[in-house]
Specification:
Strand content: 25-35%
Structural class: alpha+beta
Number of domains: 1
Largest sheet: 5 strands, mixed, barrel
Order of helices and strands: HHEEEEEH
Strand order of the largest sheet: 1-2-3-5-4
Helix content: 40-55%
Radius of gyration: 24 Å
Number of helices: 3
Distance between the termini: 21 Å
Length: 142
C-alpha cells in the first residue's frame, strides 16, 4: 500500500523537449543530405564553363556563389540555347574551367560532388544518434 502511494505521489516526468527538438533538426539535416545528393544526380548531364565566383567576405556571408554558362535544351544545332546562371558546387579555383555538371534547365547547374551530402549525413546522423541515446536513457529512467 505504501508503495502505491509513493508511485502516485511522484510527479509525472516531462519529456525532454530540447532533445526532441534537436532530434527533429538533426533529421532535417540528414534529409538535406539526401536532397542535395538527389539534386546532384538528377537533371541532364552536360558541361558548364565557370565564368565568375563571388566569395562572401563578411561575418554573416561566407558563401561562395559561382556563375557560368551551359547549353540547355540540347545542342545549339538542335534548338538548344546558351544559358547563364548559378553553378552549385563550383569554387573559385574552377573559374575559367569547363566542368561536368547536371543541368536543371535554365534554373541552375550542379557539380556532382559527394562532399556536402557526406558531411550533412555524418553531422546530422551523429547528432540524431546522440539524441536517441539520450531519449533511451530518459525512457529507461521513467
Amino acid at each position: 500500500m505504501n508503495e502505491l502511494l509513493n508511485e502516485e505521489s511522484r510527479p509525472a516526468r516531462r519529456p525532454p523537449w530540447a532533445l526532441l527538438l534537436l532530434l527533429v533538426l538533426s533529421l532535417a539535416v540528414v534529409y538535406g543530405g539526401f536532397s542535395t545528393f538527389g539534386d546532384q544526380r538528377s537533371g541532364t548531364p552536360g558541361t558548364a564553363t565557370v565564368t565568375e565566383c563571388d566569395v562572401g567576405n563578411t561575418k554573416y556571408n561566407r558563401a561562395i556563389h559561382c556563375r557560368g554558362t551551359w547549353t540547355a535544351g540540347g545542342s545549339l544545332l538542335e534548338g538548344g540555347r546558351v544559358v547563364a546562371g548559378p553553378i552549385q558546387g563550383a569554387g573559385p579555383a574552377d573559374v575559367g574551367k569547363t566542368l561536368s555538371v547536371r543541368v536543371h534547365g535554365s534554373d541552375h547547374a550542379t557539380v556532382p560532388r559527394l562532399t556536402t551530402p557526406i558531411v550533412l549525413w555524418a553531422l546530422g546522423g551523429s547528432v540524431a544518434l546522440l539524441c536517441l541515446l539520450g531519449l533511451a536513457r530518459w525512457w529507461r529512467a521513467a
